[in-house]
Structures are given as structure tokens and as C-alpha cells.
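re: ur question from earlier - yeah i can do the single chain one, its not a big deal. heres the input i used so u can compare w yours
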Amino acid sequence: MGIFIPISVVLCLQGIRVTTSRSLNFELSLSDGSYTLGTRNTAFLKSSDTFFRADKTIYSLGDGSLKLTSQQLSTGSDAHGDYDVITNYYTAGNANVSTSFIIYQNVDVVVFNQTYHNGANGTKASTFDQTISGFPSARVESYDTDLGYLSFDGFMAGDTKKHIGRWDSQTDAIGDGLKGGPLAVFDEQGRTFLLSTFSGFMASSAWHDADKGGAVFWGIMGGVDEVPANYTYSTIIYYAEGINKAFRGWGEFLQKQYGEKEWNTWEDSTLIFLGYWTDNGGYYYFHTEPNKTYEQTMTDLIKQEVTMAGLPIGYVQYDSWWYYTGTGNGIKTWDTRPDVFPDGLEYMFKTTNMPVALHSKYWSIDNTYAKQNGGKYDFIIDGIGALPLQAEFWEDLFNNASKWGMFMYEQDWLNGELDRVDKLKTDLFLGEQWLTQMHAAAAKQYNSIQYCMANPRHVMQALTLPWVTQARVSEDYHPGGDQWRIGVTSLFVGALGMRPSKDTFWTVRTQPGDPPGRTEPYSGLNAAVATLSMGPVGPSDRVGAVNVSLLMRCCGEYGHIYKPDRPISATDLQIKQKAFSDIDMEVWWTHTTIRVNSTVIDVNWTWGVVLAVDTPTDLVLHKADLDFMSSVVRHNCVCNLSSMASHQHGIDNSISTPKTRIEGIPDFGWRVNLNYECGIKCKPFTQPRFSQVIGFIGLGIRYAKEWWKRRRQGRKMFIDHMDQLFHKAIYGAPIGGIGCGTMGRGYRGEFARFQMVPGIYDHTVIQANQFILCIRKNGQTVYQKVLTGQRESSKSLRSWEWQAPGEGDVYHALYPRSWTVYHLDEFNLRLICRQVSPIFPHDYKDTSFPMATFIWTAENNGTEPLDVSIMFTFKNGRGVKDDGNGGCHNHVFDENSEGRQVSGVSINHNIQDMKCTYCIGGVHKDDVSVTCKEYFDPRGTGQEVWEDLKEDGQLNTEGGKTTCTGKGEESAAAVSVKANLPPKQSKDLEFTLTWDMPIIHFKAKERFYARRYSRWFGLDGEAGPRMSSYAAANYSAWEQKIEEWQKPVLQNKNLPAWYKSALFNELYYVSDGGTVWIDPVEGQGGKLVRVTDPKDPPIVQEFSRFGYLEGHEYRMYNTYDVHHYASFSLIMLWPKLQISLQYDIATAVESEDSTRIKFLTSGEVGIRKRLHAVPHDMGDPEDEPWNRVNCYVIHPTCNWKDLNMKFVLQTYRDYSATKDDAYLQHMYPVAKYVMETAKKWDVDDDGIIDNGGFADQTFDAWTMTGASAYCGGMWLAALRMMIEMATILKKEDDVLHYKEILDKGKVSYQNKLWNGSYYNYDCSSGGHHDSIMADQLAGHWFLKASGLQDDDIFPPDRVKSSLKKIFENNVMMFEGGNMGAINGTRPDGSKDISSCQSEEFWVGVTYGLAANMIQEGLLDQAFQTAWGAYHVCWEWYGLAFQTPEAYMTDNIYRSLGYMRPLAIWSMQWALEKFHQDLMSS
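and the output i got, formated as C-alpha cells:
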């Protein structure tokens, strides 16, 4: 018979030998089933017997009772790569079983599977610690080379009985049984085999069958007497050259299998902030201050250490002294004892605002929750132990604890539960169920979990439980003890993505009043270990005794713990010295690496940390002993580092501004090499300072509940803080018109970030969407590769080859166009791909079209002719699971109805039940040929289409799919354009991409809409081919209009080069802001037709309804307080859209929605929308926008003090630009309504509205009280504009009315807020009342921008003084003026940290501030200010084409892809209006 033999497996006479592409050798004997693992012809591990227990009998290969029935060799692929499989099938009595060896080809891993195909009975062993099966196994004996080992055993993650020694026939202390853990076997060179369970963690065991020597068997725990059919248990062996490298690689492999924890560890406040602990060894462990309760003691602690001493403690841990205990000292009731906290934990939380970490342990058999004891929940009462069985128990427990302010749940005594409940040792699934139910309830409350007294099996199970973020790796702290020695066990726990916890410590030698005899001589050592562990840092001193100075060396000013890149752990040197020389010492290491990468510099800087204790005097530490020394890499450094600041570049030295001219590409724009990678590790904002946390606690709890409520409904929150976007520095200019759905592009050419579902983004990269180059010479294909940067996945399209970016290959973006240049020097060929979208100003037709063109210019600079083919491939969908829903069908088309002939393929499918057709096409002309491939499988190897192109540079149209795709299938197509290139000539190969999705709806599906482009292309969704012909015929005209529009700016030598890039590239958001441009449709005569809503104003009927999101993550349409800044882009470029939007807002002002909702910050209940209040937003795409406005329920925005003002300001500004009398007449009564509403906010009748003491304006986390510079200034500007509008409309009474208020208000404004240098933040007595706000002159800015400068309201000398103060403090104090304008500073130049938003830099506010400076003639200051925002986002943080709302000084950003940065067009407005001489130069 024939057997398929994979390439990497060679069948020999003796058996099978596998050598991976790396270093691992594996030999299997076909005759007796034995196997050997080694490296470089050195054997490390030899197998012992293989056995299975069944029918109360042991069946083994050794005695021949385990019968081999068949063998199979196969191959496969998963997330780790390709692998070979060798499977042996056996009978063990009545049980059919198998063993499998899975050998990975590109990583040194073997996975061992044992499977019970028809189940088995009578399987249990004589003890729980033994195994019911043995596979794999390893003989414990002497080998040809000296070997050592490290095993984990016992509790505290296996720390208590860990052992390091020699691996030979005398070895006797291997950690095994139910409390054993991973085993590492290594030689003196550090070559390491690491063995552990790979699945079934809570059902596993390892059995060392002899006192000395013998063998170790891995399998299912010995207490299991029945195994169900098809149950598989797995073990992994990981090889690496280095003990640390083995643990690190093993951990990465496991995390790739089960999911990483990085996000969850950043969400765990106990890992971020300094805390205070009361557990064993702490001063207050079962001990209070004399004659005081715990409630009084803890209140004193918080008051003394936090309030008075200024220690930035972010939480307090309450240990086992606070709840009721019962039989066996287990938990009887997990609730507050009145003698401990007389007023309860909820009262404690509300009065101190201090979050807590709460201790828990095993349950007593007389607990009050079990039904057996009169409770309401199912429990196992098993001997001396009890275990909950219902998920509802855990949900109720955690829900109740959320009221107490619990952020972290400490599950202690895990080993105790295992000891007490025998069923945990006999049931395959109970242990996993117990931990999973606990975790699910914690996750719903966003509580992290610490495992304490865990056995290694619990730690391994935590791989599947992302909110288990930390595990104790030491015994309980006692002053003067050595439980700080955590280096070895940290190696195990840290490898799995968890943080090792060292436990608490004293910060001083002795505690006042403590019984004599307890001293801590090593406070500094304990503090250093806790900090470098990346786990909690929590002292436990007496009130008033805390060494604040020592702790402040562990954390920043506001309690953020300093952290390395990885938990500190033992070096290979330490472990080998113990194993081979029996020398005890501690030599640990960790590091922090920062990479700086740009077009100018690419370099890694690594700072290493070594901690050495109890080392021999003659010990020598070599570079090779420290992993970080070998990982330091410096490369591609193209500048003199000593002459540069770390990231600062002057405004004339922008690193992304083109330095060289490239023929056919503009001289200005955003340019990067294709091998550019952003080396900055940015992350989203998740952790405010401790001093700011308190104000978020109530909001956080209510938000989490609302998040879970919506999630259960299948909806998302309008701002999803639980699933924030992480930094991907990959984006280039997106494609498509306005309001028709967009597709993002990466600067390497990826198709990424799809917004086809209205207002919803899928941040995916689709591997099948590519441009592929084929070069042929003399009738032979000599080159064929994918041009897009790099392969995304090895699971599909494995036949395709990717082109690595070459030297000089660049990407250049000047929205709405981009260029990519490739050099193939081997063939003297240069390619330029020009991407064009139909975006240009004052156009309301083509600019709405869902299409783009790609013009590939191929230049043959050699002396031989070339045949060049470009193939464009594309698949259905948007890179999500729904792409495989089925029902997709492809059709070849040939179309010339719009003036040019295009051949291609239409991909017809549905996206969330909305009909959508993608069309890819090649454009015909005399000197090119266009061919198509109707269908290929994007999930397959891609070989068919790849080889088809490779054969002759063209595609064979045969072989299409005649039926629709089924469930689980996807559909792709390809188009090729081929041209012959004589020497020294060039040709254009043109492609089109269109998408026809004319009818859309939002999540609620209450109304249906037609996208605007369908006015010209119809509603049937079949217009894709015609649109392709239109794009091919018209893209040249688009480019001409784009160049005419951009030319005056690009050729103006008075403007900085970076500004030209920023001005046009920031416009990406007008189309790629979740934008919709729609008309209503209704069903008539069995079909949908476009209708006119008689309530809509004529301009909305003519120019359609327009909406764009506040941000890609902040899904609210036309968020008005933010649009206020961005609106300059619309009024300048597409004024009809701005006017249409204003009419929608006006309509909403005159409506009321009395739906009762709970506001998340205060918890108060109010109505959604009040009459005569400007809405915050027009609604959420996850609901029904325009039908239901104000989806933002954080605050009651009807009381926001800026929204009404901004409506008046935009109304007059728009009139000043358009002189549209009908618009003014329509808006004026609405403006009066909102002004009358706003008048009520002037509580002291001084002519200035008063803020309400909460965040009642666009800075929605930064409170204002009384008269404020921001809102008060806009109020005065609005009054002045009302006077002007009333004058134009001859409303004399209104003129007098508003003038009377203004005359009073402008005096109050100066008296209350002017301090001689700038305007105070507000007029309160609060700690930040005199902060310098970057946006303090927002009212003056808009007033003057609208042509209404009024020196009586805003005296020019005070305006300039304020702007100069802002420039001095808020701009130049940060990175030498290269970061933009921080929102708030204190008079001494430090950050205002009263709010997380006060210490943010807002891109749009920075651009608006710069516009204000331009208006005042401060041009140098203006460009320096704005430059910083562009530099940080586009050059430093890698946020091109995803400009965020905000960033901070520590590589933090908030809300990627945001509306407000469009305010850069207010700078252009100011330049054109106030500096015409500059602009005409």
C-alpha cells in the first residue's frame, strides 16, 4: 500500500526521523513505538513505555497488550505554521485509542496527543497523582551529555517545592502529580527541552514512577474512572538554545494558542498603580489600631497616607479578616462583618472613594450559599470541601462586590480547594468549569483576578482566562524573610503573560508599636523586586510609618508603577550553577527597549537591569549570560545621533517631507520608505492618574453595566472603551468619494480598514486584495511577486510570493491621491502606482462616487524589451467572519457605456443584508491586453490563479464558479493588464475599483436610505460595470481639478512644506469619517424609490443629508461641539454640506425626545433631548440616527454651555461666507431659541453664562465652575453675532436686547477672568481656576474669523498677551515646542493634572489655536504650534491617516481617526482672510 510521506519526514529502516527546519531532532521507531528527542545528534530525552488504563487493566506497548492497529502520516497547518503528523492507532481492551506526534516545520515544537475515540471505563489509577495514561514519557537516566533539570511543584505557582538538579539515574525530586508543573531539561550550554501540559490543564498529571531514576509519564490525572468518546489530552515539548529563551518561546506559543493577556494586564489597576496591602505579614493583618475598628483604621490610613502624606495609593487590599468564616476556617459568607466595617464596604467605598482588592479563599461546608444549607445555589459538598456549580452564583457575588468598589478579586487557597474537594481530582471537566465560571463573572464587571496559593495547573488554566492577570510566586511575607526570591518562578508565570506577585513588604526596618523581634532589614530589596516583577507594589506599614521616599522610587508622581518590558527573572547562569554545581545564588535580569524608527533613523535602545544577591566572590558575568545584551540591535542609522534630539525636528526639517524630487510625483506630501516601521510603542488611553481615578469610579461602573447590556443585545457602545483600537502604523490615503463607504489602504499597498457598513469600521487587512507583478523576457516568466509589503497569514495563498521593499521604494500621499514607487533594478524597471479618488471642492456629483483608479506607469530603463503584467486581485466582503456567509457570485463584464472600455469581474454579495457589488476592472487601449479570472478561492493556496498568470502573463477566463458560494466559502476574482515595453519606453496600465451599495440602513433598520451617488447610477445595485467605465473615462478630469485646487498652496513658498502635507492629508476624514451622504427611500409598487421628505428644507432635498462620525471609535454622527472646529473644511470646500448639516441641527433644536435615560456620569435619569437645546449629536449608526439624536449619554448635554453658542457662531460664520439671506432668515429664530435657553445659565445676572461645576462642554472630563474663559468668551461672541444678524434682519428690539446683555457681560468677563497676563480658566476658587487654557480665546477666534472683530469685547492687547502666554507655557514648555499645545498648564509651566483632558494635546484645538494666532499676525508662533501636532501624529507616533483626538507626553493616544483635526482648514481660512498678500505671493 502507498503512504504519503511529507517532505520533512524521512522513512528509514529503523523508523522515522524528523529534523525541523531549525534545531530539533525527533526519531520514532516503527517497531516498538519508542522515540528520542535531541539536537545536533545529541540525545536528550528517550521515551519509556506508552500505556493506557481501561477496563481496570493497564495496556502497554512494553508488554504487548496495547495493540497497534494502524499508522497514518499527514500534514496540516494552524496559527503556528505547517506541521507533520504521525498517528498510531491502538486497541486497549474495549477502548480504541491513538497517540499522535505533531511536529512543526518552522518552530522547534512537538505536540503529543492521546485520544480516546470511543471513550473508556475503569480507567482510574491507584492514586490521584498517578496518570491513567502515559504519553509522552521520558526516562530519568544518565545520557551521553550531562543534563540538568528545573521542575515546579507545590503551591504559589509551584514555587514552594520547585527543584533544580541533575537529570540522571539518581534524580529523585522531580515535581509531579496534581501539584506538579512544567519540566525543563537542559545541558551546560543551555540547550533546553521544556515539557508541559498543552490542553486539559485541570485534568492533567505527570507521574514519576520511581524514587530515583525511573520515568516520567504525562497523561490524565489518576482519579478519573471514565473518559468520554473523542476526548484528547495534549502535551507540548518546546526546544530552544537557552533556558530563558525556551520559557519565553514556550509561553509565546501557548499564548498564540489561547490568546494574549497584554490588554488585560493594562486594564488591571493593581498592576498599574501603587497600592496598600493588609495580608499576612502586614501590620494590619488581623490587627487594627488600638480601640478602633478596621473601618476607622482604614479610613485613617487613607486620610493620613494619601491626603496628608501625598502617597499616591490607587487601591487598598483587604485580606481574610473582613468576612465570615465557618467550618475548617473556610468562607461561610463573603460579606462584611459588622464588627469590622460597621457601616459596610459600600459605605466605605462611597466615603473614601478608594477602590479595593478583596481576598477570598475556599468555601466552608456550612456556607450560606449552598442549597444544602438553605441557600439558593447548587454546590458540591464533598467531604471537608465545598464548590459552587452555578454561573449565577459568581455573577451575583461579583455584581454585589462592584458596589464595594472591588477592582481585583484575589482567589487564595486554590490548592486548599483542590485538597478539600475530591471531585476536582476525579472529574475531567469540573476544575475548568469552576475557574471559567469565576472568570466569566469577573470579566463582566471588568475585575481582574489574582491567583494565590495556586498549583501550576491553575496557572496553566489561566491561559484561557484573560482576566486572570497575576499569580503569587512566593510564600507569605514575613519581615526579614527571603520570600523575595521569586526569580525562578517568575520565569514560568511571566512566560504565560501573567504578572508574578511577590506579596507585600515593609518599607521601614521596624514599625512603631509592633511587638519586638520583627524587623525588615531589606526594605529596598523588597521594593525593587516588587517593582521589577511587573506585579503589584503594595506596602503594609503602619499608618504614619510608610517610607514615602522609597516608594516614590518605584512609581511616578501620580502612582504609576515603573515597569520593564518583562518581569525580572533568573538568568540561565543562576539555574545552571544550581543544577551542575549546587551553588545557590540570585542573578536576575530584565530590560526595557525603545525603538526609534523613521525615514531618518532606525535604532533600538535597550536599558538592562541586573539584580545579583548572594553571588560567589569569583563570579564573572558575561554578555552571553544576559539575553538583552545579545538583543541590542542598531541598524539603518543614517544620521549623526549626537547632533539630534531624540525625536525633535524643526518645522523646516520634517522627516516625512520629501527631500528629493521624483519625476511624476508632487514635491510636497507625506512620504515614507516602504520599509518604514514606526518604532514607537503607542497605546490607547486607559489609565488616568490616581488623583483622577476617583471621579471616574461611578461612571466606570455604570458604563460597564450599560456596555454588557448592549452587548447582550448584539449592539456596541457609541464609545467602546472596552475594545479600543490599538496602534497600527500602517495606513496611507483611503479610496472612494464622500458618503459612499470607504476602503483604507496601507502605505505598503494593503487594502485595510473598511467602512462599508454605514458608520462601522472593520480594521482588517485582506490578504487576497493585491497587485501582483509578472515580468517576462523572451517568452519566459522571469519574475512574479506580490507587490504589497508582507504576507499577513500563512493559512491561505501559500503559493504566492511576496516582494520585499527595496531601497528607494517609497510611498507618497497628497490626498486624495497617492503614489507608490518600486524599483526592480535587476530588470531596469521602475513602477509608479498612482491612486486617484474623486475628491475635489465645490463638486456635489463625482465627489460622491464610490470609485477609485490605479494607474501603473511601467518604465523600462534597460536595453531589452520586457512584457509586464499587473494582476489586480480582490475578494468579497471586508475581512470578517461574515464574508463566509455564502450567496456570493462573480460575473465577468465588458463595459464601455461611459466612454472607455473596461473589462473585469463583478463580485456580487451582501454585507449585513445590504446588496453590494465590487467591480475590479482593467482599462483597454491599443497597446495593452486585459484578461480576467472570474473566480478563485481566497482561502485556498492561490496556486490556480498564480500559475495561470505565470504561464503567459495573462489570465484564462475559463474555470469560473457557476454557483453561488456556500456557507463557509469566500469568492475572489482577478484582472490582468499586460503590455509590451520596448527599451527606454514607458506605458500606463490602468485599473478601476468600484463598489455599488446604493441602499443602506442603520442597525435599527427603521428607515432605508439611498446613497447620493445613486442619483446618477440607480438603485438596483447593478451599476458597477458602468461606474467602472465612468471612472476610467473621467479620472484625468478629476486629476486636473485636484491639481488646480491644490496648486496655489503647493506653489506658495511662504508656507511650510509640512503644512502643505497636513492641510490636504487631514482631509481624508471628510470621506473616511464613517461618512454618509443620503436620501430617504420608501417602498412603492414593490420596490424602493427615492422620496422627498416635505419637512426637509430645499437645500437638504437638493444636496442630500450629510453625516460624519465624531471618530472611528466615537460613533456619533455630526457631534456638534467637535464639528464646530472641523466645520471650516466644509464651509470652505463643500459649503452646501455645511449648510445642509446646519439645517438638520436647526430641525433637531426645535424637537424634543422625552425618552427617559440614565446619564452614566451622575446616575441621574433625564430625557434624551430637550426642546430648544442644540443636540450633542445626530445619533449612533448602531441605532437610528436622525430619528434618535443624542446617543451620547455620558452627561445631560442639554445643560452643556457650549453647544448653543456654537450653533450661533457657525450660523453667522456661514452667512458671512455665503451671504445666503434665506439661510439667515431660517436660522435666526432658531438662534434666538437657543440664546433664550442659554440666558438661564447666567445664574448671577452679570451678563455671562455660568458653568455648572461639572464637565459641561466639549472638554467633557474637565470641570468648569462659574464664568469661564472658554464658554464665557463664546457667549459674548454669540451675543455680538446675534446683534449683527438682528441688524441685518432689521430686528431693532432684538438688537437692543442683546446689546444690553453684551454691555454687561463684557465688563464681567474682564473683571472676573483677566489676571493681567491671560484669562483664567474660570472664576471659581478651585485648584485649577487660574490654569492657562490653550482654547481660552475660542470665542474671539470665531468672532474675528467671521469678520466681526470687536475690540471692546476682546481688547487686542489682552488677546495677544494671552496668545503669547499660551505659546510660552502650553507650546514651548513641551519638547521644545515640537508637541503642539497642551490643553492646560499651571502658571509655573507645569501640566494641569486636575483632569486627564487638561494634560492632553488635542490636535484640532492646536490647529484652531494656530488659526487664532494667524488672525493676530503671530505667524511664526502659529506654524510652530501647529507643526507640533502634525509632527507627533504623522511622524513620531505613527498615526498617519488616523489622526486622533488627543495624545499625551508618554506615547498615549485617545480616539483614533477623529473629526476635530479637520480644523487645520481654519488656518487656511485665516491665511486667506487676513494675509492675502502672503497667499497671493
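Residues 1024-1050 form the longest helix (27 residues). not sure if urs matches, ping me
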